[in-house]
Write a structure and sequence with these properties.
CATH architecture of chain A: Orthogonal Bundle
Number of domains of chain B: 2
Distance between the termini of chain A: 44 Å
Number of helices of chain B: 9
Shape of chain B: globular
Radius of gyration of chain A: 19 Å
Distance between the termini of chain B: 44 Å
Radius of gyration of chain B: 19 Å
Strand order of the largest sheet of chain A: 1-2
Shape of chain A: globular
Number of strands of chain B: 11
CATH topology of the largest domain in chain B: Rossmann fold
CATH class of chain A: Mainly Alpha
CATH architecture of the largest domain in chain B: 3-Layer(aba) Sandwich
Mean pLDDT of chain A: 90
Strand order of the largest sheet of chain B: 7-8-9-4-10-11
CATH class of the largest domain in chain B: Alpha Beta
Number of helices of chain A: 11
Number of strands of chain A: 2
CATH superfamily of the largest domain in chain B: P-loop containing nucleotide triphosphate hydrolases
Structural class of chain B: alpha/beta
Helix content of chain B: 40-55%
Strand content of chain A: under 5%
Strand content of chain B: 15-25%
Oligomer: heterodimer
Structural class of chain A: mainly alpha
Order of helices and strands of chain A: HHHHEEHHHHHHH
Chain lengths: 306, 259
């Protein structure tokens, strides 16, 4: 019988995991909001982000053990990885999705699955099959408060995710570009008449989503290690999170991500199932939400979607 | 003064010549009518001018600038607004929000220039800017007598009002020319009457109007000059009086008398 403190611990772990899901889910949901298309290569972008981050970080760090430089190098590596993935996301959209925009809806979907295979197999080819550890950019000794232990990398994960989500929300709701983006998600052809360069907005959407995925990829590799197929399961779960929150809805992706993380973390001990089976919880949650409320938690609240 | 002209513009779809070397002139500040039997190529010509379609050959000059083949969003930024036969509104937004959308992406304003500085600035001004836009949108709704419907969702509006809202939104974006594609289609006589008032006021406002319309009473009453297309070719051009009595136009509409 787990105690209250243990459950609080699960909750904390769940929020950490959930904020990563939320970051990745945002990419799925933003692209869906504008193109009504599920970008199945999104999971592999996070893998590319993790590798880029890892390589940049180790290259910058060299032999240094200076704690200030370690943290600085980590953030530089994160920015480099975001920029690289943003460019990659735009490139993929340009090459693999844009030519198919007026085609049957199935065509870009298949193209996305193809891109996903190219990325994950390409990474396996370049980096080999074995997984790598992402070194902590600080001493990761847990801090214990009233029986709850929180590690510095959990704090980092939560803080970085919250900052990203706040910035994104401000961007989408308050800036001209964000407004053009929301307008485009409401109606593409009408937005074009309003003088909005729809192609540019779509590129931007892919860039932003992919940059967020890069952050998610780096943050989740502390717990999951870095390997070529790391994006498959995490990407799939983030997609589930986006559907639970109401796909196409930005706030929904954030809520869905956190909810899914917490469910996974608390669900296993609560239901007494082995933690090896905790992935089933995510997909059981997907089935339940599709049966009970197929539009997702915040679906239908269409005015906020992008 | 000529604000827009097409020079020998053609559009060929497969083997069909939809528009055949048309010189269409639009005079500034006037209501310019474009008429012709069904399939004459009027909407195709509109689409080419507004960037929905690329001409097969020929040139389009607007305000001294060659706009042939530019994308629709760019042309709308230069100051050409249009409405469609099938209405295009943001259905899930309210009436006032639709007009605000037109204001927000006003002609000339560059949402993408100086992106970062702009973004930061517009973030800090967002609230006051929004209130300002809201007030302006309301004044446009008053101009079109739509202010009573401001909080209604666009999708719930009666047909005639949707048309007017589409025109209101186009006007709010501050265009130099507004293209109206069959604005009176499906309207009852009272609504048409109201629409005529609106078009007159747009002209008084100094905005050039180009009108495709089948309702001859409307066309003859309101247009300052009329261009007639038939089977993709320009067959006549002149004042309503000249067009009314032009034998070629009568033939195009009624067919040749065989004797």
């Amino acid at each position: 019988m787990a105690t209250l403190v243990q459950y609080l611990q699960y909750l904390l772990n769940g929020i950490t995991l959930g904020s990563i899901y939320a970051l990745i889910a945002l990419g799925y949901t933003m692209v869906y909001g504008i193109l009504k298309f599920i970008n199945f290569a999104h999971g592999d972008i996070l893998m590319v982000g993790a590798y880029t981050g890892l390589l940049t970080y180790t290259a910058l760090l060299g032999d240094s053990t200076n704690p200030v430089w370690m943290l600085t190098a980590f953030f530089i590596a994160m920015l480099v990885s975001m920029a690289f993935c943003a460019a990659l996301g735009m490139f993929i959209e340009r090459v693999a999705y844009k030519p198919l925009r007026s085609a049957n809806r199935l065509a870009p979907l298949l193209s996305a699955i193809g891109v996903s295979f190219i990325l994950s197999n390409g990474a396996a080819w370049i980096f080999g099959a074995q997984s790598r550890r992402f070194p902590y950019p600080f001493d990761d000794t847990p801090i214990v408060i009233a029986g709850l232990s929180i590690t510095p990398h959990q704090i980092l994960t939560i803080v970085v995710s919250v900052v990203m989500m706040v910035v994104l929300t401000l961007f989408v709701n308050r800036t001209r570009m964000g407004k053009a983006m929301r307008a485009t998600s409401l109606d593409q052809s009408t937005s074009e008449l309003m003088g909005i360069d729809v192609n540019r907005i779509i590129s931007m959407t892919f860039a932003i989503g992919s940059a967020l995925a890069a952050v998610g990829g780096i943050l989740c590799s502390f717990d999951f290690r870095v390997y070529a197929s790391m994006g498959t399961m995490t990407g799939l779960k983030a997609f589930v999170a986006a559907v639970i929150g109401g796909i196409g809805n930005i706030q929904g992706a954030m809520i869905g991500g956190l909810l899914l993380g917490v469910l996974e973390s608390i669900g296993a001990p609560l239901l007494g199932i082995p933690s090896a089976l905790r992935d089933t919880i995510a997909f059981a949650a997907l089935i339940i939400i599709l049966l009970v409320r197929p539009e997702g938690i915040l679906g239908k609240n269409e005015r906020e979607k992008v | 003064m000529r604000i827009l002209e097409t020079q020998q513009v053609s559009k060929i779809f497969g083997g069909v010549v939809a528009v055949n070397k048309v010189d269409f002139n639009v005079e500034q500040g006037l209501v310019n009518g474009l008429i012709g039997p069904n399939g004459a190529g009027k909407t195709t010509l509109f689409n080419q001018i507004t960037g929905m379609d690329v001409p097969t050959s020929g040139k389009i000059i607007f305000d001294g600038r060659d706009i042939t083949g530019l994308p629709a969003w760019k042309i709308s930024r230069y100051g050409i607004a249009r409405t469609f036969q099938n209405i295009r509104l943001y259905c899930d937004l309210t009436v006032v929000e639709n007009v605000m959308m037109g204001l927000h992406f006003k002609v000339g304003a560059e949402p993408f220039r100086g992106r970062f500085v702009q973004a930061v600035k517009s973030y800090f001004n967002a609230r006051s800017e929004n209130r300002e836009l809201y007030e302006k949108a309301l004044s446009w709704l008053e101009f079109f007598n739509l202010e009573g419907l401001k909080d209604e969702f666009a999708r719930n509006l009666p047909y005639g009002n949707q048309r007017e809202l589409e025109i209101a939104r186009a006007m709010a974006s501050g265009p130099k020319i507004i293209f109206l594609d069959e604005p009176a289609a499906g309207m009852n006589p009272a609504e048409t009457e109201h629409l005529m008032g609106i078009i007159n006021r747009i002209r008084e406002h100094g905005v050039t109007v180009v009108l495709i319309e089948h309702d001859m009473k409307l066309v003859m009453n309101i247009c300052d000059n009329i261009t007639v297309l038939s089977f993709g070719q320009k067959i006549a051009e002149g004042t309503p009086e000249q067009i009314r009595t032009n034998p070629e136009v009568i033939e195009a509409y009624l067919g040749k008398e065989d004797d």
